[in-house]
Write a structure and sequence with these properties.
Length: 256
């Protein structure tokens, strides 16, 4: 099979020296890739600079990205070239990207100037509209500083929502066996499964690996694999999760 795997965590630049990111190490994605490679499959591995990755080998093609936008562009380029047999989307993708930054002083000045044009500050609806317009205009401010000065006591960071990468995978690769991942923190197993089933249905996945951050420590990693019928299987380590995913993907591919 020809497999595409995403792993690691995207980061979004604030300026040339700062960024926001998540704590994903890519270790589970690495283990999944190594398990597919051990079974003789071809793997295209999309990952991030700080994440761990499999050792180089002829059957492995590693592509490096940083931002969610770069991930989207890279995936679309790959999809234009290849119809993958399976996509394992384990990357922790940033929900938001940076839009602009403002010092506390600039923010107050701009907001005050906008509100100052109002005649009646007691008109709550009109006040909300002006604040919303002001925020939209501030968000469109071009961030052209290579390094944001640190002289302000408070820095306001504007974030805007990123597109959901998983939402486009079925449309762009309808033939692929799609495995998505959902991470929650401190929830019951029943809630974890319920949310996983919802994500699976919404994004037309074949499988979802639902896991809770509080059950992950080193190689110990409890994961619940949910199929399109809502049935579940549980693994307790990264190696077990990887083998379970490989087995299920291979089985579904053989039966197509």
């Amino acid at each position: 099979m020809n497999i595409l795997i995403t792993a690691g965590g995207t980061s979004e630049k604030i300026d040339n020296v700062r960024s926001i990111t998540n704590h994903s190490t890519g270790r589970l994605g690495k283990t999944i890739a190594e398990t597919f490679l051990a079974q003789g499959h071809l793997v295209t591995y999309v990952t991030t600079p700080q994440a761990v990755r499999p050792a180089k080998q002829p059957e492995l093609n590693i592509l490096e990205i940083e931002t969610t936008k770069e991930l989207e562009t890279t995936l679309l380029e790959q999809f234009a070239q290849t119809a993958f047999d399976s996509i394992i989307h384990s990357m922790a993708v940033s929900d938001f990207t940076t839009e602009t930054t403002l010092s506390e002083e600039t923010f107050i000045d701009q907001l005050s100037e906008k509100i100052g044009t109002l005649g009646d500050l007691n008109d709550t609806r009109q006040l909300k509209e002006h604040i919303q317009i002001s925020l939209d205009e501030m968000g469109e401010t071009v961030q052209d500083q290579k390094k944001i000065p640190s002289k302000t006591d408070r820095l306001l960071l504007f974030l805007k929502k990123n597109p959901k990468i998983i939402a486009m995978l079925r449309e762009k690769q309808p033939q692929a066996i799609l495995v998505g991942f959902k991470l929650l923190v401190g929830v019951s197993e029943a809630e974890l499964i319920q949310v996983g089933r919802s994500i699976l249905a919404k994004n037309q996945c074949d499988f979802i690996l639902a896991n809770d951050l509080e059950t992950i420590q080193g190689e110990q990693h409890k994961g619940i694999l949910i199929n399109a019928l809502g049935q579940t299987q549980t693994a307790q380590t990264k190696a077990e999760i990887a083998q379970l995913i490989v087995n299920k993907v291979e089985e579904k591919w053989r039966n197509q």
